Amino acid sequence: MKDFGLKRIYEKYLTVESPYNTYINKGLPPGPICTPSVETLKEVINAPKTDYIYFVADSDLNGSSVFTSNYKDHMKYAKLYQQALNKQDSIKQARENMQ
To answer: Rounded to whole angstroms, how far apart are CA atoms 67 and 74?
Structure first.
């Protein structure tokens, strides 16, 4: 979609025709979706051992993430994050309506 500022993926985006849309195309995309920095690669190589397999942005909207080892907990934190974004969107919309 070439919008690198997207913060949310709404249901309407799930059907966008693109070879990078893994919601409608099986397998890996035809090329990289980003190029990590050398620092990032070093951090991955030296990452601590954990049982985490899921992550979601923190509902505090502070740029951090919450990591979990099971789907139930992941969905709990994902819902909290979505609710925080909804609240943020509502506040933004209310401010725009006041102007």
So the answer is: 8
Domains of the chain, by residue range, sit at 11-98
Nearest to 23 by CA among 32, 31, 33, 13: 13
Rounded to the nearest 10°, the torsion over CA 45, 37, 50, 77 is -170
50 within 8 A of 71, measured Cβ to Cβ: no
Asked whether residue 3 carries a pLDDT value surpassing 90, the answer given is no
The one-letter code for the residue type at 37 is S
Question: What is the distance in angstroms between the CA of the first residue and the CA of the last residue of the chain?
Answer: 30
Neighbouring-strand partners of residue 67: 55
Asked if 58 and 76 touch (Cβ cutoff 8 Å), the reply is no
Q: What is the DSSP letter of 67?
A: E
What does the pLDDT look like over 13-22, one tens digit per residue?
889 999 999 8
In 3D, which of 2, 98, 41 has the Cα closest to residue 90? 98
